[in-house]
Specification:
alpha+beta, five-stranded antiparallel β-sheet, globular
């Protein structure tokens, strides 16, 4: 099981950038009562950046898929 501190990574999709591979990840922290779900851009499997935090699982999944979709659009446009 992969974690970032207290947050368990429950989904990850690898993207291929011009310089390096990176991931869009979805995490869950049961100890965070306010916003237990998060999406990040992750480099090198351990460098988590640009977090979007959510109260519900459905909001987090929506953002997770939106982030993937935006990255795909960016790759196609280049």
């Amino acid at each position: 099981m992969r974690k970032n501190n207290e947050t368990q990574i429950i989904k990850a999709v690898t993207m291929k950038g011009d310089i390096q591979e990176y991931e869009i990840v979805l995490g869950y922290n049961p100890n965070n009562k306010l916003t237990p779900y998060v999406t990040w851009i992750c480099f090198n499997k351990n460098d988590y950046n640009f977090g979007h935090y959510f109260k519900t699982k459905s909001e987090a999944y929506r953002d997770f898929f939106n982030r993937i979709n935006e990255e795909i659009k960016y790759i196609i446009i280049r």
